[in-house]
Amino acid sequence: MAEQERFDAAVLGMGPGGEVAADRLLKAGKKVLVVEPELIGGECGYWACIPSKTLLRPVELAWSTAETPGVTTSSVVWEEARSWRDDMVRHHDDARQVQQYEEQGATVVRGAARIAGPGRIDVQGREFTTDQIVVATGSTARVPDIEGLDQCTVWTNREATNLREVPRRVVIIGAGPVAVETSQYLRGLGAEVTILARGRRLLGREEPRVSELALEHLRARGITVLLNTSAERAHRDGADSMLVLPDGTALAADAVVVATGRQPRTQDLGLESLSVVLDKETGAIEVDEHCAGGPGVWAVGDVTGIMEVTHVAKYQARVAVDTMLGRARSANYDAIPRVVFGHPEVAAVGLTREQAAEKMQVVAAEVDLTAALARPWTHEQEPSGQALGVLADRDRGVLVGAWAVAPHASEWIHQAALAIREQIPVERLLDQVAQFPTYSEGYLAALEDLEL
Ligand SMILES: Cc1cc2nc3c(=O)[nH]c(=O)nc-3n(C[C@H](O)[C@H](O)[C@H](O)COP(=O)(O)OP(=O)(O)OC[C@H]3O[C@@H](n4cnc5c(N)ncnc54)[C@H](O)[C@@H]3O)c2cc1C
Ligand SMILES: NC(=O)c1ccc[n+]([C@@H]2O[C@H](COP(=O)([O-])OP(=O)(O)OC[C@H]3O[C@@H](n4cnc5c(N)ncnc54)[C@H](O)[C@@H]3O)[C@@H](O)[C@H]2O)c1
C-alpha cells in the first residue's frame, strides 16, 4: 500500500495564489502540504509579472532619461538588464523558498498533483489525505490555431520574458496587456516590433479612449500596430518565421510572440473525482463567493478564470482560507484595478462607460493632465497623451469607474479604487486636498468637470 500522510490542507500549485493560501494556513498553525511541479513562485514569479516588469524598468528609464533635460541619455545595456532579470527570476532556483516553507512547518512535495478522490491527493505515486484541498494551479498561454504556426519560432510569455538574445524582428499576435507590455520592452531593447490586433483597438477591455492613447504611445515609440488583422497562416522560410495576413501581406520575423490569452490549468488534475464544476467554454473551476468549488475544495487564482491577475489570486486565497478557518468572507470583485505597465502606464478601475450605461444614468469627464496640472511638466520636458477619465452614477453621486494614462498611474489609480469600492460621495471627494505638484491632483480637476 502506498504511503499515506494526513494533512489539514493541501495546496496544489505555489504561484501567488497558492503561496498566500499556504502562508495563511501555516500562520494559523495548520498542518499543510504544498505541491509544486515546477518552481515555488509560479508563473508570476518566473515567467510573467516579475520578469516583464524587470525588463520594462530599464527601458522606461532610458526613455524617461531621453525626455529629461540635464541627464545624459542612457541606453540599455542588454547583458546587464538580462542579468538583473535573471537575478529577479532567481536563476530558476527555488531552493530558498522550499527551505522557508519547510522551516514554517510545511511538507513540500515536488511533482504534479492529481486528486484521487475527496480529500485524496496523489503525487507521482505518493498518496496523501487531507481535510481541505486548495487548487491554485494557474494557467498556461493559449496558442492560436494558425495553419503552419508550428513551423515557426513561437514564443509564449515564457520565452518572451526569459529571452537570452534580443531578436531583430518580432511579430506579436494579440492586443491585450501582454502584447502591449511585451512590445515595449522588446522595442526598448532594440527589436523591430509589429503587433497584430484582430480587433479595431488595443486593450479591448478598456475605454476606447484608453485604447486610442495607448496606440499613440506605442506608435510614437516606433512600434508598428496593425489593427483589424491577424495571421491567417504561417510558414518557415529559412531562418525566418513568416506570417501571412488576410490581404496577402507576408511578415518576416525572428520570433512570433503569442499573446492571445490564458487557459486555466484544470486538465489532468483528477477534478472529475470531485463534485467540481468546470466552465464549459474555458475549463475554469466554478467557485462560489467564498472561492469554494465544492465540499472541502477551494480554487483561487487564474484557475478560476475570474480576473487573471496576481492581486486577485492573492485576494481569493485570503477569502478562501479565512472562510476555511471559520471567518467566512465573500469575494467582491468590484473596483479591482487593472494595470498595463509601460511608458506611460495605463490603469483603470471599475466600469467602462458602456458597462455603466446599461445600469445607470452615467456622467463622465476626461482631463488632459498636461493642460490641467503642473506635474507632467516637472516630470518630463514635452509631456503628451496623458489623461484621466472618471465616470459617476448621477443618481447616487458616486464614482463607478476611472482610468488614467500617465506616469505612475498604477500607483495613484488606487485612490479611485478606494472611492469606488467604498462608494465615497463625489461631494466628499471634492473636499480632498491632494499634494502639489502630483498626478493625484488630477482627480479634483476631473471631478469638478463632472456634471452631476
Ligand atoms: C506576461 C505576463 C505578465 C503578467 N503581469 C502581471 C502583472 O504585472 N500583474 C498582475 O497582477 N498580473 C500579471 N499577470 C498575470 C499573473 O501572472 C497571473 O494572474 C498569476 O500568475 C496567477 O497566479 P496563480 O497563483 O493563479 O497561478 P500561477 O502563477 O500560474 O501558478 C500556478 C502554479 O501551479 C503549478 N501547478 C500546475 N499544475 C499543477 C499540479 N498538477 N499540481 C501542483 N501544482 C501545479 C504551476 O507549476 C505553478 O507554479 C501577467 C501574466 C503574464 C502572462
Ligand atoms: N499588468 C498586468 O496586470 C498584466 C500584464 C499582463 C497580463 N496580465 C493578465 O494576463 C492575462 C493574459 O493577458 P493577454 O494579454 O495574453 O490576454 P487577453 O485575454 O487580455 O488578450 C488576448 C488578446 O489576444 C487576442 N486574440 C485572442 N485569440 C486570438 C487569435 N486567435 N488571433 C489573434 N488574436 C487573438 C484578443 O483579441 C486579445 O486582444 C490577462 O488576464 C491579463 O489581464 C496582466
UniProtKB/TrEMBL annotation:
Domain FAD/NAD(P)-binding: 8-317
UniProt cofactor(s): FAD
Location of the Pyridine nucleotide-disulphide oxidoreductase dimerisation domain: 336-443
Keyword Flavoprotein in annotation: yes
Top-level taxon of origin: Bacteria
Annotated coiled-coil segments of the chain: none
Record keywords: FAD, Flavoprotein
InterPro entries: FAD/NAD-bd_sf, FAD/NAD-binding_dom, FAD/NAD-linked_Rdtase_dimer_sf, Pyr_nuc-diS_OxRdtase, Pyr_nucl-diS_OxRdtase_dimer
Keyword Flavoprotein: yes
Classification via Pfam families: Pyr_redox_2, Pyr_redox_dim
Family: Belongs to the class-I pyridine nucleotide-disulfide oxidoreductase family.
Name of the molecule in the record: NAD(P)/FAD-dependent oxidoreductase
Species of provenance: Ornithinimicrobium faecis
